[in-house]
Task: inverse folding
């Protein structure tokens, strides 16, 4: 196992201080409404988010950031990421995690462009350290999925084993999406995970909530 792989594992570990545990990506809305109560519900929801929503889009943004040859190009990718966010909370989720990621990586591995959205920040940092983007993308998706599984385990609540079964079932999808976005450009950004986007918007108006999104 190489040091570069261990670095990537460190970046995507729950212990890395990006605050991912504080965001539900709209899941809290669905759970409060009683529409997500079983492991099968969670798996179906996350499959759509990965294949047709944030997962697919974040892969494209991460790869685009990795391919940037200049700070101006990186700024354009990040501006696109911000414009593509479907709600204020989703934008805040991406911006705050990206800022936290950038601050920590800068302190340990050296400075990079400040205040990038999360997938863009990871892609840019991966390029600086010459990591394998074809490894970064599926592991980034897997970490994103793991965070949302953890939300459901805590909030539904689902059993720990059921949560891990869902995560294992979605691992091949993470790899497929990573493969499918090879060569994709920003023109390929799209989202048809409408219920997820609506859940994120509705979360902003919840009276009682635990998560920030």
Result:
């Amino acid at each position: 196992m190489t040091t570069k792989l261990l670095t990537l594992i460190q970046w995507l570990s729950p212990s890395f201080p990006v605050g991912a545990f504080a965001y539900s990506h709209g899941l809290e809305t669905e759970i409060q409404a009683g529409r997500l109560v079983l492991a099968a519900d969670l798996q179906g929801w996350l499959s759509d988010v990965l294949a047709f929503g944030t997962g697919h889009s974040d892969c494209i943004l991460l790869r685009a950031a990795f391919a940037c040859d200049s700070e101006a190009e990186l700024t354009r990718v990040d501006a696109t990421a911000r414009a593509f966010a479907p709600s204020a909370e989703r934008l805040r989720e991406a911006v705050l995690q990206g800022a936290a990621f950038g601050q920590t990586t800068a302190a340990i591995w050296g400075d990079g462009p400040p205040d990038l959205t999360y997938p863009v920040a990871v892609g840019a940092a991966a390029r600086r350290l010459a990591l394998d983007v074809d490894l970064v993308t599926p592991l980034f998706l897997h970490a994103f999925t793991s965070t949302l599984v953890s939300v459901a385990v805590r909030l539904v609540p689902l059993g720990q084993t059921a949560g891990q079964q869902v995560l294992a079932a979605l691992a091949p999808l993470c790899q497929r999406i990573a493969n499918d976005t090879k060569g994709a450009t920003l023109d390929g950004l799209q989202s048809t995970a409408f219920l997820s986007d609506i859940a994120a918007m509705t979360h902003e108006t919840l009276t009682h909530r635990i998560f920030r999104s």
Q: What stands out?
A: The domain at 25-195 is CATH 1.10.4190.10 (Urease accessory protein UreF).
